[in-house]
Amino acid sequence: MKILEKLLQESSLQSHVGTPAKRAALKAKLSSPGPAKPVAKGMKVSEGEDQVIDAVSVTVNGNLVLEDQGRLLVTGDLVVEGNIIHEGFDYSLLFVGGSLKAHNLLVHGEVVVLGDFTVQGVAWTYYNDYSTYADTLTAKLVVADDREDIIGKVRADHHLVGHSSEIGPELSKLLKKGLVDEEGEWSYTTLAKKLAKKEALLP
After folding, report:
1. Could you say which DSSP state residue 31 is in?
2. In what helix (H) or strand (E) does residue 101 lie, and over which residues does it extend?
């Protein structure tokens, strides 16, 4: 727990999790977490809020929403029985000391997963202000829009990396009709709203 509180003093965790060795060393330092914690009706980390949860596992029955400058750190596993959404242009942090599972993920901020990282549908990160750090990521579609994520191995049916102008034409073929316009552009606000309603992005 003290380690996570120290991490909150950092503006970015890159120096702590930028390599597999650093992630493994940090995971080894995490103390034995507390009992499992269920969250019944979804979870929201408000703007500027820090939440540190010391639990062997956290299960969110619904969506997990991160607002700008919101930070969530979990010592153990995190299971989101819905979508993870951070639709913004400022820093946010999702740190998971164990494994992370979710239906879909749309994030602009920083994501750190020290265990297995599994998304049922779409794992979509965007813009190069921040990165995702994990050893593995499994999803049907992985999108890194104008962003360099530090992931050891990506297992996906489709993995798109590049500027929106480069990946737009391919995305329009993969996503549900209407999410990407004829010019290969999309709205992150629209995507976030659909995920908030638990609507699928893939056909």
Report:
1. P
2. strand 100-102
